[in-house]
Amino acid sequence: LSALSRVTRAPADKILGLTEKFNVDRHPNKINLTVGIYKDNRGRVTTFPSVASAQSLLETSLDLNNDLSYLPITGSQDYQNNVLNFLYRESSDGSELLENNRITFVQTLSGTGALAVASKLLATFVSKTVWIPNPSWANHSNVFQWNGFNQIKYYTYYEDGKLSIDKWLKELKESCSSRDPDWPPSIVLHACCHNPTGVDPTLEQWQQILPVIHDLGITPIIDMAYQGMESGNLIQDAYLLRMCLEYEWPNGLFVCQSFAKNMGLYGERVGSLSVVVPPNPLDLKSTIDSQLKKIVRGIYSSPPGYGSRVANLVLSNPKLKQQWFVDVKNMSDRLWNVRIQMHERLNWPNLVDFKTQHGMFYYTGLNPYQVQILQERYGIYLTEDGRMSLSGVNDGNIDYLCDSLRQVVQ
Ligand code: PMP
After folding, report:
1. Mutation probe of ligand 1 site: the residue of 18, 38, 112, 262 with most atoms within 8 A of C-beta
2. Residue 317, exposed/middle/buried by CB under 10 A (0-12, 13-18, 19+)?
3. Which Pfam families match (predicted)?
């Protein structure tokens, strides 16, 4: 018998598996509302004007470093400078940290890659315990598990249609107060547009949450996959980063950032991991740099080039950057418009409050059985937890969608 027969069958990916099913569904009115890819009002995945301009500039210019050779292990220096500038000079007030050389950087394979590289470092050297919100993006626990964490803990984030901060903080306090301080756990915090609920703590609530996390010695991992999609303004949406920078984090502040959604560069895998390291010992940053390089080298050696060149141009060319801000605002406006239209059509008093939610998803409150009926009878695909990607809703299908939803909750 082959030793490979010890391989056990893994369950299909909770989100991507549904698209496979959708693709072979023959329902004439089928709608895919599972995956978080932005589509316009005609149901097309379009390239943002800023990104399209950057692409054509790259195509026509010979001096924009267009060659296909390897990038350095932690990515291109230009990209690093521009992303750090965007995150720590424009989105937040971290200039001093940059000047004091306190931020390590890796150009990563989008947000997932950033989470994976951060996990490897943390699980190898800091501790193997991580707290994840319940509910959260389904891939979080998978990423942390595969990259060395052996204790995945869940804090109650949302219950009965609303945030449950008191319970969340109580759980952290009960579990972490008596822990060995040499092995501090990490915690995943969604920067904005929490996936799947679409509900985030307010600034006042974060002011209540962050001191608790800080005082318990927990290491924050900010997962910033939707910057710009909450308010429509990229800078405004970095509020959690700004607030976290008001503290010194003795075990570092980890920032996993993605251009997948806010530049529409999904498949190009463009993102970053930056770690704000404590000021002492003096060579700590370069030591961490050395391990991050080793981690990357051991998994994929170096990141892909093309998408990061596009992002780099958008970030560094003032005209393209201005356009990018407009593009993000347009996307966010359309999603908000869809949310309001559905709210008005459905007039659902008994389900989750629409207006406290924002971003790409509508967390409907439908149960798995209702989700299944929607799929089987109406060809409408949501994730099992009742999360609906609003980007798949448009003028052509909103009536059918709302009629079907009404039938299912009757
Ligand atoms: N974090 C969250 C919460 C997400 O929803 C996603 C995308 N679905 C990611 C991280 C990572 O996405 P990507 O790797 O495409 O940047």
Report:
1. 112
2. middle
3. Aminotran_1_2
